[in-house]
Amino acid sequence: MKTSHGVAISLLMLSSIWAAASDCLPISEAGHHVGENKCVTGKVLRVKEGSKGVHFIDFCADQTACPFSVVVFPSDLKDVGDVRRLAGQVIEIHGPVKVYRGRAEIVLSRVSQLTAGSTLIPPLPKDFDVEKQGKFSAGRMRPSKKPAKVKGTVSLDQTFGNEADVEPQ
To answer: What is the DSSP letter of 61?
Structure first.
């Protein structure tokens, strides 16, 4: 009897997990829920970086014909992590579904919007700079430091320059 009770609990837990996963919409249905806070699921084919450090998570081979997109702005990357690692994974993203240029999208601004295996995104590398390609960071612009003023008294007994060569008369 204990065995059947344990199996029943396991099946109940499994069905509740499956029901929670079924709350997510496929990317093809996201456009029907604009203005709603929804969960959308799909397999990420690639993550590409656009102009000014904006990252686009693509679910279709032809992104212009794809019904759904996920956008990550450069200012949100520190809260989301290294989104490049999502390529090849099936993700579930939660958030308000918006329309941009005729296509449904969700803006990814924090890692808690992602569920399933995609929550294990590592943080961005410390030297990652969205503005500059390559391995070097642009750094900060600072004015040069002014030399410290030396306070002191001038000695009248010392000779300077050519005065040392002249003999007193």
So the answer is: S
Q: Are the C-beta atoms of residues 141 and 106 closer than 8 Å to each other? A: no
In this prediction, residues 14-40 reach a mean pLDDT of 76
Fold of 19-120: OB fold (Dihydrolipoamide Acetyltransferase, E2P) (2.40.50)
pLDDT band at 119 (very low <50, low <70, confident <90, very high): low
Asked if residue 121 lies in contact with residue 79, where contact means CB atoms within 8 angstroms, the answer is no
User: What's the predicted TM-score (pTM) here?
Assistant: 0.58
Q: Are 73 and 109 in contact (CB under 8 A)?
A: yes
User: How many other CB atoms sit within 10 Å of the CB of residue 13?
Assistant: 10
Query: Residue 132 and residue 52: Cα distance in Å, rounded?
Result: 9
- Tokens 């997109």 identify what position? 69
- N- to C-terminal Cα distance for the chain? 124
